[in-house]
Amino acid sequence: MTHTKTPLTHQQILGMFAMSLAVLVVANDFTAFSVALPAMQKVFSADVSTIQWVINGYSLVFGVSIVSGGRMADMYGRRRIFILGATIFAGFSLMAGLATDIWVLLLTRALMGVGGAMMWPATLGMTYALIPEERAGLAGGLILGSAGIGNAVGPLLGGILTDTLGWRWIFLINLPVALIGVLVVLRVIEKDKPAQDKSGFDYGGVALLTAGLLALLLALDLGTDAGWASPHILGLFATCFASMTCFGLFERKMGPKALVPSDVLRNPSFLAAGMVTLLMSAIFFAAILYLPQFMQTDLGFSALNAGIGFLPLMAVFGLTSFVAGSLYEKLGAKLSICGGAAALAAGMFLLSDLQDDTTYPGLVTGMTVLGMGVGLFYSSITTAGITALDPSRASLGGAILYMFQIAGGSIGLGMNTAIVVSAPDLAEGINRAFMLNGVLAVLGLVIALFFVGGRLHKINNKR
Fold it and tell me: pLDDT tens-digit profile of 116-168?
């Protein structure tokens, strides 16, 4: 059946522009430090396992806080939570930019994740609420396309600043950008309506979820040095298991107050989308960290040149994300998601052939295919997951999906780091890690094929 697309109003277009700008602020900060890590490592005399927490710590806090941010946005108002999050994000960016100690840097960088975790789901909720339901694919494409541009600009901007003004300016530039985002949102997004959900906030659920994910990430990070069978590492894994088990039991008793309400937990399409996202997310994080490092360490690139060299992946990611919205509307969720998953797997397998004598042209094909997969997959899986839920859960649904993405990426990054540091050299370590990532992507593709996005032969028009 053919559906006539509702044209967008001027106000909706302006609002979507504001949301794109907000997403760009957060997305830029995920990748800008990928080319700056060697310079930061030198300044603070830190090893690779410590300095990776500039990326991993931010991602971890972002991942464990984003569900809370989404719930707060749905309960207390998306615009209000966005502005509060932007203030936190900018404030800790300033503190990180002025840090003279590695542990102060890592702490303030991690706390930036709290602000980002409030901004992102509020942005998703406002975007999907702005436009007609049948144009949801456009919303997903716009948000992930803007994220792609932010991610693409990140390594380039990080390289320019690192080679000129210094890596501290990667933090400091967040202040004016966040201010612009807040001003535009205030101008074009209507004031928040009073919250209809008066059930209260699930602080116990937040604590248990945070403890479980934090214990898991610490175990993965410290296990390489301490030994996987050491009492401390086994204790962390046990803490993770106990916390996540208690979280599941606790949430069942909380009713409408639960951090993750029962109607979300019992939605099979949404949960399948989350599982596929979890499996796929190690790929992007590993590429962000290790491809620029290979370019600088083995190919002799400067930070700026590594940022430019990373553009085939990031630019294709951004462009594909914008096209993905139209493809989703034409092909439906199933074909869009599975096509993106297949490209992710193919890109990883192409890049897993990396050797000591690999030259830059040998990376371009794999990065391009990987960029296509990232852009198509994440836009489509986000839209499919959010639209599987009631519209009142839009911010929470987007937050949970992003939690799966960030948690999966952080877990994958810890796993990749453990593999890389145990290898005889960087190239061999990347080779082994990327091969495993490709296998995980194939597993995610199989789950998507059977459980996500409806029937394969139908265009997935909204019910």
Answer: 888 888 887 777 777 766 666 666 667 766 776 776 677 778 888 888 888 89
- CATH code, domain with 300: 1.20.1250.20
Residue 229 to residue 282: CA distance in whole angstroms: 24
pLDDT digits (tens, 9 = 90+) for 264-315: 778 888 888 888 988 888 888 788 788 888 998 889 888 778 878 888 887 8
- Report the C-alpha gap between 18 and 108 in whole angstroms: 27
The reply to whether 340 and 423 lie within a common domain is yes
Three-class SS state of 149: helix
Q: Which residue has the tokens 């950008």?
A: 177
Single pTM value for the model? 0.72
Alpha-carbon gap, residue 145 to 375, rounded angstroms: 7
- b/e string for 46-79 if b means 16 or more Cβ within 10 A? beebebbbbbbbbbbbbbbbbbbbbbbbbbbbbb
C-alpha 402/C-alpha 425 separation (Å) is 33
Report how many domains make up the chain: 2
The pLDDT value given to residue 366 = 94
Residue 29: which residues within 8 A CB-CB, separation 6 or more? 58, 112, 116, 154, 174
- Owning domain of residue 292: 10-202+259-451
Nearest to 223 by CA among 211, 212, 237, 209: 237
Q: What is the mean pLDDT of the chain?
A: 81
Other residues' Cβ atoms within 10 Å of the Cβ of residue 208? 22
